[in-house]
Design goal:
about 45% helix
Length: about 180
């Protein structure tokens, strides 16, 4: 069995810093996250990596991967257990399909296919470029743009930011009473 390389990555979700574990050996995104560009920054940022892995997790939960044989896992199962307690397996898969559809729609038609190939089907960038007839190193740039859109859809950011235009504080009151 191959050894897993788990790494903690910190991202901001809705303004709250969160650490997540990512298996960097399993996906092309993990490979890109470990590589550095000419300027020394990672080819895939932390928020982009988490967004891509989140899409892949929902894709897997949605059972959208093509099967070559019959699915015998569900035969003989009963009861509700696991992370989707309260939902039947088919309801959980349908909810995951809806999340995948919403994420790919938010990314837009120009990025949806590439995100599906790299994040879900785990195709390498060279293979994607070959399949699409793109020049070398084009997929890396387009993937970065698609992952940015995906991260924005999920509410992920590298740093927490407040509202663009916050109004000034007009009054401060004690004990939760509004100022008059």
């Amino acid at each position: 069995m191959a050894e897993r390389r788990l790494e903690r990555v910190e991202v901001a979700v809705d303004g709250v810093a969160t650490q997540v574990l990512v298996d960097l050996e399993e996906s092309p995104l993990g490979w890109l996250a470990r590589r550095r560009g000419r300027d020394g920054s990672a080819l895939v940022g932390a928020a982009q990596l988490v967004a891509g892995e989140r899409l892949r997790a929902d894709f897997t939960r949605a059972q959208m991967m093509p099967r070559l044989t019959a699915d015998w896992e569900a035969v003989g199962r009963s009861g509700r257990r696991g992370p989707s307690a309260g939902l039947t397996p088919s309801e959980a898969a349908m909810a995951a399909r809806q999340r995948v559809s919403a994420a790919l729609e938010a990314a837009g038609p120009e990025f949806a296919g590439l995100l599906t190939d790299v994040c879900c089907f785990l195709k390498g960038l060279e293979q994607v470029e070959q399949d699409r007839g793109w020049p070398a190193r084009t997929a890396k740039v387009v993937l970065g743009l698609g992952l940015d859109r995906l991260a924005r859809h999920y509410g992920l950011a590298v740093a927490a930011r407040g509202p663009e235009r916050a109004g000034p504080i007009r009054a401060w009151s004690a004990q939760g009473r509004p100022a008059l």
